[in-house]
TrEMBL record:
InterPro entries for the chain: MFS, MFS_dom, MFS_trans_sf
Keyword Nucleotidyltransferase: no
PROSITE patterns: MFS (PS50850)
One function term, GO molecular function aspect: transmembrane transporter activity
Protein name: Major facilitator superfamily domain-containing protein
Sequence intervals crossing the membrane: 20-40, 91-110, 122-141, 183-209, 221-245, 327-349, 361-383, 395-416
Topology with respect to the bilayer: Multi-pass membrane protein
Entry keyword annotation includes Cell membrane: no
């Protein structure tokens, strides 16, 4: 059900505001937990019907996909394009942090909970946390969208529930960012789709259990270590990488612009009345400076995405040939470096559309995530079950090939080369 409404809620955040849409999935999750508690406490009265109603309500209110889309749209409103990939990386890292802390905290609360039914106490705790989060959004979080659409054509119910209608923004040629080809948005969405489909999440542990005789203990360590590694990459390595390249760009620009300005001033001092041939306005023009900065940001995000997908392909290859558990963990460590591609891709997406369409775009991306998330286990598990008896590591070679293709397709997403002409880049 979340698949049907995520695109609609994304577009709604452009017209009603990010804060308005952020409240909806939190409220749905809160209702979901309350219905679970009612079922557990009064099962003899209500039966188990609410167990089926609760997830439907959570899905129709958007769920995790809408919350993520609205959160990314909120961050996009509040940050400059140059810093967006780092901020997206931080919010993604918080989910990895939750994956590290959450299970341990849940086990601890279950252990210290009084009474005969500690699970109910855990559900009460979740309701308390989500209530605090909802109140925080309602009364404290400010609205970030300064470009609210005041006039738009209302959608019919059929259009609201049509997931292919939500994907329309990804299929239209983009005209907002003239520094990349018009088809860049469509190519980027397709790359994102095949990258999700081609990542064999469910096979990592199954293969290790078969080849290295893992148990639940080793599997738990594998996922905990992987989450911790991605947390370090997104919170530590990615900001340092961005800082390094930003300082390098500033140094390079100073090396070229300052001598030009010195020559201009020297010529101007010799002939103050002649300023027709030597004019520094083209260098200092605010609009051109802004566009040059956007071009540098674009190049940074594109290259980070390429490196991330290339590293993922290499990591999957090492998964396939790993002879021991230690080598398998080494491949996982290399794969964690590929997590830098995700925030850079999100940053690229938001830079290709105007601010008035950011919510609609991110909603469409969440729909792509959901579709790919449904297809991926069906495809990957089918291939693995077919080949596990003859060549169990074949799935890793195939998935590595998918990421090689994804990396190659990113070469189509490149700045239009040429010269500046009235604020635009031309071939």
């Amino acid at each position: 059900s979340a698949l049907l409404v995520t695109g609609y809620y994304g577009a709604l955040s452009d017209s009603k505001g990010r804060k308005y849409v952020l409240q909806i999935p939190v409220l749905g999750s809160l209702i979901h937990m309350v219905l679970m508690i009612i079922t557990a406490k009064f099962q003899k009265v209500v039966g188990i019907r609410l167990l089926f109603v609760a997830p439907i309500i959570k899905g129709l209110t958007g769920g995790h996909s809408t919350a993520m889309a609205a959160s990314h749209a909120y961050i996009s409103d509040c940050t400059e394009p140059a810093k967006r990939s780092v901020e997206f990386g931080r919010i993604t890292s918080m989910f990895f942090l939750g994956g590290v802390i959450g299970p341990s905290l849940g086990s601890f609360l279950l252990k210290i909970s009084p009474g005969d039914d500690p699970i109910i106490n855990l559900l009460y705790f979740v309701v308390f946390i989500e209530t605090i989060w909802l109140l925080y959004i309602v009364f404290i979080v400010p609205e970030s969208n300064r470009h609210l659409k005041t006039a738009h054509k209302p959608k019919t119910l059929r259009e609201k529930l049509n997931i292919f209608s939500a994907l329309g923004i990804l299929l239209r040629p983009q005209t907002h960012n003239t520094q990349v080809p018009p088809y860049a948005l469509t190519v980027l969405a397709f790359v994102h789709f095949i990258a999700i489909v081609g990542l064999p999440f469910g096979v990592f542990v199954l293969y290790a259990m078969l080849k290295f005789k893992w148990t639940a203990y080793e599997s738990g360590i594998f996922f905990s270590v992987g989450s911790a590694e991605r947390l370090v990459i997104l919170l530590g390595f990615l900001p340092l990488l961005m800082k390094f390249f930003k300082e390098k760009d500033n140094t390079e620009r100073k090396r070229h612009v300052d001598p030009a300005r010195g020559i201009y001033e020297m010529v101007r001092d010799q002939d103050p009345e002649d300023e027709t041939m030597y004019n520094m306005d083209v260098i200092d023009d605010p609009e051109l400076v802004k566009q040059r900065q956007q071009l540098r940001d674009l190049k940074f995000d594109v290259w980070v995405m390429r490196v991330g997908y290339g590293v993922e392909a290499l990591a999957l290859f090492f998964y396939a040939i790993a002879p021991s558990t230690l080598a398998y963990f080494g491949a996982a460590a290399l794969g964690s470096l590929a997590s830098i591609a995700h925030p850079s891709m999100r940053s690229l997406f938001t830079n290709l559309v105007p601010p008035t369409q950011t919510g609609e775009l991110l909603g469409a991306i969440s729909v792509v995530d959901a579709i790919a998330g449904i297809l991926s286990p069906l495809i990957i598990n089918s291939i693995y079950s077919t080949t596990v008896g003859t060549m169990p590591n074949l799935i890793f070679f195939l998935c590595a090939g998918v990421f090689v293709v994804a990396t190659a397709l990113t070469l189509l997403i490149k700045p239009v080369k040429g010269c500046w002409d009235q604020g635009r880049l031309r071939i």
